[in-house]
Specification:
about 40% helix; Rossmann fold; alpha/beta; about 270 residues; 6-stranded mixed sheet
Length: about 270
């Protein structure tokens, strides 16, 4: 029987394999693209530990174009959706070769909504499964990893999975529809040319806050003010005292306060 343990990052693969190999012969394999995976025996079963690099699958529209609203989407390999994710292809290729060898699956991604989505999509699209055993850990220390393996959960955390999938789908629907609407509005306004004006659940509000702050800065009109300082010597040491009320907004008031203070004795109080 072959068990495949799916992790979220290369370093997690290494540390989980080293922790669970029980000081026995840990085999390390590196493919032609320098993607490393591990193999060891435990409890009479062959275990393979292989990793993702974050999300190996992302949402994409079913049809290309710029019309909206868009409500149809599908999951595709990340390297097909985003050119910045081309590096993930080699990790997906390794998992695609290893997964058919397995009869049992363990998800060992981060125990959160994103980790659950990462593991589930690998199961779904590479193994045609919708559940697996689950390692639950918060650190990558040997003791905690061994305990997590000995107390392995029989199922994935479907609450976290549904939350993660929902977040991805809502973010995608929000982003693609508003991006298309804004881009087409900009195109109609410009009359010629084509510039993409993107937005999203986080990007839009963040840019709005930056705009508000920028407008405040541009509208700001500096007002003159005066400050009074008193330079005194105390035991042959110079001290500087400032006016207790801070800035003075009228020169006339500053002149009057200065006039009242001139020639007077200064008292130092605790």
């Amino acid at each position: 029987m072959t068990v495949i343990i799916i992790t979220e990052k290369p370093d997690a693969s290494r540390r989980i394999a080293e922790a669970l190999a029980e000081n026995k012969s840990l085999k390390v394999y590196t493919d032609e693209n320098k993607v490393t995976y591990y193999e060891f025996e435990r409890n009479g079963k062959k275990h393979i530990v292989a990793c993702a690099v974050g999300h190996l699958f992302n949402l994409a529209p079913v049809e290309r174009g710029w019309s909206y609203p868009v409500f149809s989407y599908t999951w595709k390999p990340s390297y097909e959706v985003n050119k910045d994710s081309v590096f993930s292809k080699k990790y997906l290729d390794v998992l695609s070769k290893l997964v058919p060898k397995a009869s049992e699956f363990i998800i060992a991604t981060d125990y959160d909504t994103e980790g659950e989505v990462i593991g589930f999509n690998i199961l779904k699209f590479l193994a045609n499964r919708n559940d697996a055993k689950r390692l639950k850990f918060s650190t990558l220390t040997k003791d905690e990893l061994v305990e997590s393996y000995e107390k392995i959960l029989p199922h994935m955390d479907f609450g976290q999975l549904e939350a993660g999938l929902t977040r991805h789908e809502l973010d995608w629907l929000w982003g693609i529809n508003l991006t298309r609407a804004l881009t087409l509005a900009l195109k109609n306004y410009q009359g010629k040319g084509f510039s993409i004006l993107s937005t999203g659940r986080v990007q839009g509000p963040t840019l709005a806050m930056l705009l508000e702050r920028e407008l405040e800065i541009r509208k700001f009109k500096p007002k003159p003010f005066w400050e009074l300082e008193l330079h005194v010597k105390i035991d042959d040491r110079e001290a500087v005292a400032t006016y207790e009320k801070g800035r003075i907004w009228k020169k006339e008031d500053a002149d009057n306060i200065l006039k009242d203070c001139k020639g007077k004795d200064a008292k130092v109080k605790d």
